[in-house]
Fold each of these.
Amino acid sequence: MASLTIRKLDDAIKSHLRLRSASNGRSVEEEVRVILRDYCEGRPATAAPAPTAAPAQSERPTAPQAVHGEARVTLIIGGGIAAYKALDLIRRLKERHIDVRCVLTRAAQQFVTPLAASALSHQRVHTDLFDAGSEFDAGHIRLARECDLIVVAPATADLMAKMAQGHADDLASAILLATNRPILLAPAMNPLMWNNAATRRNVLQLRRDGVAMTGPNAGEMAEAGEAGVGRMSEPTEIAAAAIDMLRPPKPRPLAGKHVLITAGPTHEPIDPVRYIANRSSGKQGFAIAAAAQAAGADVTLVSGPVGLRDPAGVTVIRVESARDMLDQVEAALPADIAIFAAAVADWRVASEGAQKLKKTTAGMPQLALVENPDILATISRLKDERPPLVIGFAAETEHLIDNAKAKIARKGCDWILANDVSPATGVMGGDRNTVHLLTRKGKDIDVDSWPVMTKEQVADKLVAAIAKALEESS
Ligand SMILES: Cc1cc2nc3c(=O)[nH]c(=O)nc-3n(C[C@H](O)[C@H](O)[C@H](O)COP(=O)(O)O)c2cc1C
């Protein structure tokens, strides 16, 4: 059977195919397959969607996040196979109301045409450093500075090497060297290129220079039979990363504060294979750690055994038992704020079996229990290193507020978050929580009852309350 080489088609047909495939978010090859299938199945040929057409509702992101004001991106398209996806990226950025100006490297023009980029961006496309038409007023400097963000997609191994070395011998590298704007790279290359020692050095250097990156992802390569890390992030992922960088920086009310948090259950060993535990999932404590980190705090999270991923930017210390947890909490002091969200086991087995307990004819083993250290009370009563704000949790199944008020007094902490953990509430292990914030005000205790929320919302509200208290006390 004859094979079709797209490269050998007429330029006009190639250009049409590229535009059409980019508009439909497919590769050129996939687009040709769709056209042929439609033809064979007798479906009427559909015209290439106009580059300016709004995307069909079904292919729009559910909630395109627009940046406020007129954000402007200079998009540098490098010479890699993934360049065709950069055309889709232009659409994704534009549907988020971002103005896009494209620069194509010489190599990029082997993969996509300036015409396609220009039609999709509705702007003139720039390709040459020595372009009399735009360099009469140093156009490369304008492209470098008259934008809010520079995105390089695909960022080739070659472009990254040039950036890391500070080269400026073509328009793309000159813009990247002359800019004072943030830069987001979407690397794309063969896995061997990505893993090459030279590329590793360049990536490290660029990260040190403050350049942001999205991807590359793992997956199949364009080269037949090859797979690994090197695929460019999808256009929607790159657009989301760009939006994040374009947003005004979030307020960081806990900047400079060390927040110490405990989370999860503890496991109290009975013997080498058995333990006493509870149903805590750790989700609430992990959500608080992520919220405090997002608010600028330096966060240490001491967690019992849970199946949750470490929140980004948080120092996570994994422990098993209540005694390990107390040791690690004490080692992490001093802290400005301590939040004890862990469901620490009250008791442990008095003498842990050195070997697995066996069934014997002598009857059931008798497990004598002893009390575990009380972490909240221990830290609340410290003389020298007591954190200025100590917050406990009261997980109760009855008389919630009364028990929580008694707990504040008994433990000597400043605030308590009380929640009903009766099985019917689904709080233990679930994603939602209904809490009451009890705060000590002199001799009185204020109770603020929050509506049912996700654990992330509870975390955000708690962090906001902490930030407000810090502001009021300063
Ligand atoms: C078919 C083909 C595909 C290529 N794909 C990539 C790629 O995905 N990533 C990459 O870093 N280089 C790739 N290259 C090599 C670059 O095109 C080459 O390094 C070029 O100099 C990059 O120029 P630029 O960085 O100025 O765009 C490819 C080359 C060819 C011929």
Amino acid sequence: MRHFIKQFSEQSIVPSLSNFIRIPNLSPQFDNQWQQNKLLEEACNHIIKWIENETIEIQKEIQILQIPNSPNCISIKIFGNQKQNKTILCYGHYDKQPHFVGWKYGPTTPIIENNRLYGRGSADDGCVPYAIISAIKALKEFKQNYHDCYLIVEGEEESGSHQLIQYIKMLNISKIDLMIAIDSGIVDYDRLWITNSMRGAITFDIKVFQTINPFQYLRILLNKLEDSLTGEVNSQFQTIIPKSSLEECQTTAQLVPLEFPMTCQKMESDHVQQYINRAWKPSVSYIGGLEDLDQDNDELIIRISMRLPPNKDAQEASQQLVQLLTTQWSQVEIIQAKTGLAVKSFSKELKNILNEASIEYFGNEMRMFHEGASIPFLNSLYQLYPESEFLILGVLAPDSNAHGPNENLNIEYFNKLIGCLTYIFTSQNI
Ligand SMILES: [Zn+2]
């Protein structure tokens, strides 16, 4: 199986994914001509054509889902052949981040170096449809069974996944047993990494007006929000970390290097607590506003981004913010509020499958990762099928440079991930 995947990856995936990299199909938010230049359509068709060519012997149904003013969404249903067929929904996206500068070879010039495929969209998230289809193909080749499997590949993740839920609803799937979203981070290339939680985020403006010294007043307000010496955020925004997540954080922390590039002092010296702080505690950052400050103006506006614990409801936190910071001399305007995600514990069976898969392909047990950042669509997906198990995977290590120059896909990790997927798709116990 391992050999088959490696060979198929070399002979079919990498050449096709390289041609995908050549298409500069930026997400709609970064290309206002996308409907005219049809680059997203070209990328979508490129993936479908590859799937059609590679799955002739596999029973499936391919659809291009369409909603006006939204990029097309690819939907593939693969009909399983298990005795007790379960339903799996897999997610990926084909739109890309802007190119930015600093590339060694160029964002649309696919190059393999040290077994990594360089180019925009290689790892985030072009490789996903290739991974899912290859896993099914490998199982077919080795006459192993697999479950019913839907693959959804949307075209506007980097712009906010506005129609994703509508697209999935168009499929009328009554029950999903397992959702697999492959668009997340990993820590190293030594094991199967599973994202267990993500923080939420609120962006808001504080407006201070008609006081003798608005800046001084702003400091008073900010002190209500966070302790300026320690960075500890007001207790209203703290939550209780579930026991299982806390234990997982403690196991994972040793594997995660945490860098403090600034010259500021660390708020916390214990490494495990630093990791927990980043993953589960709220934090406040100033992101703009003061540059417009006018000396003659007695009003000022500051924009704040606040990360929320994964299990804190963003609407509730928004109301608390308004209550906390609205006074006779100040107002709060919520710009955006997105709840994070705390995935419920896996069943014992699924946990075993994931561990076995990771040991089989990587030689190490899998590990849970707790993301300090946010991927908002994951929560919407989770809410759509709350009964389903939710597996968040990825190929994005810190040196994969997703969203930056020299984005690259570690081909060895990718191949091993396909191996793990075969393990999951064929297992009776998911
Ligand atoms: Zn992505």
